[in-house]
Design brief:
heterodimer; A: ABC transporter involved in vitamin B12 uptake, BtuC; two-stranded antiparallel sheet; 13 helices; globular; B: mainly alpha
Chain lengths: 339, 333
């Protein structure tokens, strides 16, 4: 009897040990992105000294950080579902272009001011809604739906200004890029407000918790009566809203509305979300992971530019660092399946 | 007895139709474009359309089994760019030797094919051994290959006059069909037979359907995955060769638009990106869907900006029709 008890105890102990080791591993994986970010900062500070670690460069980094952050926030929720949104390049460009022809501009006589911006963001929200709707109701993979909408939205962006991009002449919008509060540029404030909104949604609303549930295994929330389809459509709509905001912010930053505002945003955003630790299979990660992920990408690009690296190699180095970061944080083992 | 027979006959008809929706899409599109522009069925245009689809076809051949595995390769287009500039760079470096131009072409082609296979193997190994999701591993490779292509040459390079004749075979026609397309289709058909009739191929479907079960059943999952990625690299290299010979010049961004075009062709054909099912023969139809959309809109004279909108809408429509919704419980991500 005593022997049996002992055996039971050892099994229990062994199990506890195993769980402990796993927890420790998970903790390391959880903090790895932060470590990568710190390592990058240290490396660039050593390499470039005061040029990198200066207030002016910090402001520059914050400026460069704004748009990738807003875009990646929207994408985070979609990836948490286990889906993917490729429409970013198109939606962001479309929102920026539509906003540019609706506010006071050089191309036409429109002057809707703030309503122009709201309409532009609404267009992007509608696109997000349709991506979600088609994905859920027609059962098409989100990957395909959003790819189709990337093309559609890029086309609409070009059509909105029909060839010649409109330059913003609205005095308020023109002044905004130079405005800063507490030393932080205006567009970064917009990004921070969006960040707070997303944290609130993720942490303090039932909808935010449902996203995790649906991402982990959607059959379970479905069977307990959560409307999985609605959650999914809402997520894509929210992503559309954030892409729209990013488009308007891009317009403010550039001063000119063109489809190019959204160009090359998608892949860095995907990379930032995944580097931050949000898993592509869904159910894991979150908004704060994305903050770290986007910071890694922004600091990396900023630092490499400061080091005077050939822009042609820059993307390559970016790719290698993404790969290393992901390799360091991926779970391995015989039972892990990666697709 | 007779009654049940007719019922089963009707359902089987329906099944056949459902299964071959993509062919229906092709037919409908041909009809629409012909009504809008009678010249669409002009023999010149058919020849053009068929020869234009060859690079897409060969690259889609490599991509289909990857989607059957449930994986994805986003680096395909960038790999194609690298192979494209690399092949011409090799040919240029040997142009002044007294070698036969065709020998130069062959050496360059073999080197490019080897590079393609190697890149596929490296990507496959990183994906399989380090358990990095193929999506993110190939995303990283995309940036690396984009850089590599721009490092080899940052601007388009023309095929030198002395070597131009090595590109002449691209124009050879057998009836309305060009030699490159025949080669691509041949590759697809051979690959199709390997995939459907050999243990290797059946294993790929098993891995895509349920990897854990496949592993437990003793299938060499890792090895097969790497092989599929290696073949994909080879196909990217062949596609790059087609593009080089077709344009008689190389460009470091030539493959950029191909990644998503190839994936949409495969998916439009009826291979879902969820893994476990699909067919290479369907991919042939998918490639034609994409080619006909592109060519047809040019023929009809659709505004360049509208073309993007229409292209997106048609892809959505094609995929909406071809998507398999037979199982209600299937989770679509």
């Amino acid at each position: 009897m005593a022997k049996e008890n002992q055996a039971a105890l050892t099994i229990q102990e062994e199990f506890a040990k195993k769980i402990k080791a796993e927890n420790r591993r998970e903790k390391i994986i959880k903090w790895a992105p932060v470590l990568v970010l710190l390592a990058l900062i240290v490396v660039f500070t050593i390499a470039r000294g005061s040029a990198f670690a200066s207030v002016s460069n910090l402001v520059a980094i914050l400026n460069q950080w704004a748009i990738p952050l807003i875009v990646a926030l929207g994408l985070t929720f979609v990836i948490m579902l286990g889906g993917i949104d490729l429409s970013i390049d198109g939606t962001v460009g479309m929102a920026g272009s539509i906003a540019s022809v609706l506010v006071m501009n050089t191309l036409n006589d429109n002057n809707f001011g703030i309503f122009g911006i709201i309409i532009a963001i609404l267009c992007s929200v509608v696109v997000g809604f349709f991506v979600g709707l088609f994905h859920v109701k027609l059962k098409i993979p989100s990957f395909m739906v959003s790819f189709a909408f990337m093309n559609i939205c890029t086309g609409i962006a070009y059509l909105s200004y029909s060839g010649t991009p409109a330059t913003v002449s609205d005095p308020v919008l023109k002044a905004l890029p130079k405005v800063s509060f507490l030393g932080i540029p205006f567009i970064t404030w917009v990004a921070l407000v969006m960040l707070l909104l997303c944290i609130y949604i993720q942490e303090y609303t039932p909808f935010g918790r449902y996203i995790y549930a649906v991402g982990t295994d959607e059959t379970i929330p479905r069977s307990v009566g959560i409307n999985v389809d609605h959650v999914k459509i809402k997520v894509f709509t929210l992503a559309g809203f954030l892409f729209g905001v990013a488009g308007v912010v891009g317009l403010i930053r550039l001063g000119q509305g063109q489809a190019g505002i959204g160009k090359d945003l998608m892949f860095p955003a995907q990379a930032a979300v995944v580097i931050g630790g949000t898993s592509l299979s869904g159910g894991k990660g979150g908004v704060l992971n994305t903050v770290v992920g986007t910071l890694i990408m922004t600091v990396l690009i900023n630092g490499l530019t400061m080091m005077g690296v050939n822009p042609n190699i820059k993307t390559g180095i970016q790719g290698i660092i993404i790969l290393v970061a992901v390799i360091l944080t991926t779970k391995r083992g015989a039972t892990v399946i990666s697709k | 007895m007779e009654k049940t027979n007719t019922v089963s006959k009707a359902t089987s008809w329906k099944k056949v139709l459902l299964k071959n929706y993509s062919i229906l899409v092709v037919v409908v599109m041909i009809v629409i474009f012909t009504i809008l522009e009678p010249n669409f069925l002009n023999s010149m245009n058919i020849v053009n359309l068929l020869s234009d689809s060859a690079p897409l076809m060969i690259m889609a051949a490599g991509m289909t089994p990857i989607l059957i595995l449930g994986s994805i390769d986003l680096s395909l287009g960038s790999m194609c760019s690298v192979a494209n500039v690399m092949m011409l760079a090799i040919m240029l470096s040997m142009k002044d030797t007294a070698m036969n131009p065709f020998l130069i072409f062959a050496i360059a082609l073999l080197a490019t094919m080897a590079a393609g296979i190697c890149s596929g193997i490296v990507l496959g190994l990183i994906h399989v051994k380090l358990k990095v999701p193929s999506f993110i591993a190939s995303l990283a490779f995309m940036s690396v290959w984009d850089s590599a292509a721009l490092m080899i040459t940052s601007s388009p390079v023309k095929l030198p006059k002395a070597l131009k004749m090595t590109a002449d075979w691209y124009k050879i026609q057998i009836g309305p069909v060009g030699l490159p397309l025949i080669m691509s289709v041949l590759v697809i058909v051979v690959y199709h037979f390997i995939i459907t009739r050999r243990a290797f191929g059946r294993s790929i479907f098993a891995i895509g359907g349920n990897e854990r079960a496949a592993r437990i059943a003793g299938i060499k999952v890792d090895l097969y995955k790497v092989i599929v990625f290696a073949v994909n690299g080879l196909c990217a290299a062949l596609g790059a060769m087609f593009l080089l010979v077709k344009a008689k010049s190389s460009a470091p961004t030539v493959g950029e638009s191909f990644t998503l075009m190839v994936i949409s062709a495969v998916v439009a054909g009826g291979t879902p990106n969820t893994g476990g099912s699909g067919s290479l023969l369907k991919t042939i139809i998918g490639v034609f869907i994409i080619s006909i959309i592109k060519n047809g809109m040019n023929m009809v004279g659709v505004n360049v900006y509208w073309q993007k909108v229409v292209y997106g809408a048609i892809i959505l429509l094609a995929v909406a029709i071809t998507t398999d919704r037979s199982s209600r419980s299937r989770v679509v991500k």
